[in-house]
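Hello,

Our lab assistant flagged a job as stuck in the queue for most of the afternoon. It eventually completed. Since we weren't sure the result was trustworthy after the delay, we are filing this so someone can double-check. Below is the sequence as submitted and the structure that was eventually returned. Let us know if re-running is recommended.
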Amino acid sequence: MIVALLNQKGDVGTTTLALHLAGAWANNGKRVVVIDANPQGSALERSEQRAKALPRLFGLLGLARDTLHREAPEIARDADHVLINGPRRVATLMRSALLAAGLVVIPAQPSPFDGWASGEILRLLQEARVFRPQLVARFVLNRCGARTVIARETAEALAEHEPPVLAAQVGQRVVFADAARTGKLVCEVSQGEAAMREITALAAEIERIAR
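-- returned structure --
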């Protein structure tokens, strides 16, 4: 399967989710490739940091170009799962990623602002469905504060939204930032158990939907 994590708004945790989902699937025996389609190379940068001291868990390629919809299916021939770490505010790259994917996951933080900011990706999603009417899309709530009213209200608002929201949520946890400094995943650091449970639940839900 090819999954694209896309939101034109920055700082919603797209790269963190992509790398942790890839790690969860790889640790479960899947052949995984992450395509970094972000011109800033955020996933590649973290991979280089990891390579200084830790083994590679999955493949990672930098393909920040608008031929992604032709290249990603070829890459997927030799992988169980391909994850596209999407670009910010580059419409041509986002269109190509949308045409490549079977499932689009839109990370959003639980705030009214993020709901509005997702408007551009929703417009691009509608355009892509002209050519790919079976394209599946879901929101995922990321960086949720523990038991906050706004997280609950955002989830309730998105429950009746198109695309719908995934049941699995990922919390706002310092351990993600701590792990990122050395290129580690939360499963590889102390006090990462709760975060890893959330990632595992999200990975399992995405696999169920993408089948």
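-- support follow-up --
The delay was a queue issue, not a problem with the job. The result is valid. The first strand starts at residue 2 and ends at 5. The chain has nine helices and six strands.
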